[in-house]
Amino acid sequence: MPPVRAVFAVSALIVSSGSLGQDMMRHVDLASPEMTQAEVTRADVEILIQNGAPVDLSNRRLSGLDLSDLNLKSANLQASRLNKTNLSRADLSGAVLDQAWALGGDLSETKLVNASLFATQARGANLKHADLSNARLTADLTGADPTGATLVTCAAGPI
Fold first, then answer.
1. Domains assigned to the chain
2. 3-state secondary structure of 45
3. Which residues of the chain have pLDDT under 70?
4. How far is CA 24 from CA 38, 44, 45, 118, in A?
5. What's the pLDDT score for residue 159?
6. Are 106 and 86 in contact (CB under 8 A)?
7. Are residues 107 and 82 in contact, defined by beta-carbon separation less than 8 angstroms?
8. Predicted structure pTM score
9. Which of 44, 105, 122, 156 has the greatest CB tally within 10 Å of its CB?
């Protein structure tokens, strides 16, 4: 049987349990250098991309960087700090952003097809026109802007 395509309302995919999100952020100093400063540059990331292997930036501080328009397909960004990072128009297809911090990040027009955003903190993120088709999306998107975002999933059987 061919895949069944279903479009879900944005509110159905956004997990923003107030108490859970607050508990996760309770002991985090959001103004600390750990959360606000990058430890690498855009040039460093571009070199990793040129090496041809999937980029591993897990548990790295990337806050505030301009990573727009980069090809980060299948990148490992698990537990990375991407607060106020510009990822607009980047290709993050198949990327892992589980437990990442992307507070106030710009993910507008970003391709997140088949990406994993499990327990991701993306409060206030700009998701305008992002493509989240088949993404695993269980993130805190409180105050995020998903205007025009694509949220389509395929299922193997009838719904």
1. 1-159 (2.160.20)
2. helix
3. 1-30, 32-33, 35-36, 154-159
4. 22, 30, 28, 13
5. 42
6. yes
7. no
8. 0.79
9. 105
